[in-house]
Specification:
- The chain is α/β, with parallel strands linked by helices.
- It has helices at about 5-15, 50, 55-60, 60-70, 80-90, 105-110, 135-140, 165-175, 225-230, and strands spanning about 1-5, 20-25, 95-100, 115, 120-125, 130-135, 150-155, 180-185, 205-210, 220-225.
- A hairpin with a 5-residue loop joins strand 5 and strand 6.
Length: about 240
């Protein structure tokens, strides 16, 4: 992995005709949403957090599941400069965003061609009747008033399979692009990190992160706070 500076990173983005962004929890921490596994993360100090976000817990201990899921919501969080600048880049270049995040901030930034790889907390529905339910209603109660069924957020829980359409769209977005930008992720969660295997051999990979990641191919690495990097991108110059 070749370390570069901001100028080189901006040049790569400027020269690209098609860009696919792969984003993780580090993109949203500046918006006040904690990541998962750091010392200040959602999972820190919680016993068996994966179980609390599992299909089994939702079915067998719905109160415990609901109590934990409520802590994931940050309805007042706003998109930061990363979300906003990526959305602006998408207005200029053919751009796809594939995000591990379930916080809905890319959508709030009005990002076009977005794949929420693990779903969206703010997309809720009743498991009994299938009717869509607002996140606001879900945060008040996990039972649907109309039929009494259990409400759940449309996110991928542990023990559940990924949405096939999300996988297909993500693979296509990676396979056809000439620049892949990986931002704010340790890139260790499967199968999200496996998407890189579908990239063309000629595609350029740019990693903007506080820490390096492991890839099985050549890539450029900018060790920097992504918020600062994207604040310095002038979309009018792209």
């Amino acid at each position: 992995m070749q370390t570069i500076d901001e100028t080189k990173a901006r040049t790569l983005i400027k020269q690209a005709e098609q860009i696919t962004f792969l984003t993780g929890a580090g993109v949203s921490t500046a918006s006040g949403i904690p990541d998962y596994r750091s010392l200040s993360g959602i999972y820190h100090g919680i016993e068996r957090p994966e179980y609390l976000l599992s299909q089994t817990c939702m079915h067998e201990e719905p109160e415990k599941f609901y109590s934990f899921v409520q802590t994931l919501y940050h309805p007042d969080a706003k998109p930061n400069s990363i979300h906003l600048k990526i959305a602006n880049i998408a207005k200029i270049k053919n751009t796809w965003v594939i995000s591990q995040n379930i916080d809905g901030l890319h959508a709030k930034a009005k990002t076009q061609q977005l794949v929420n790889f693990h779903g969206n907390l703010y997309d809720c529905y009743c498991r009994k009747c299938g009717q869509a339910v607002s996140a606001e209603a879900y945060l008040v109660s996990d039972h649907h008033e109309q039929c009494g069924g259990q409400i759940r957020p449309n996110i991928v829980l542990y023990e559940e399979g990924l949405d096939e359409q999300a996988i297909t769209m993500s693979i296509e977005a990676v396979a056809k692009t000439d620049l892949i930008v990986i931002v704010g992720t340790s890139f260790q969660v499967h199968p999200f990190c496996d998407l890189i295997h579908y990239a063309k051999a000629t595609a350029t990979v740019l990693v903007i992160n506080q820490t390096p990641i492991h890839l099985n191919r050549e890539a450029y690495f900018l060790k920097e706070d992504a918020v600062k990097v994207f604040e310095n991108i002038v979309t009018e110059e792209l």
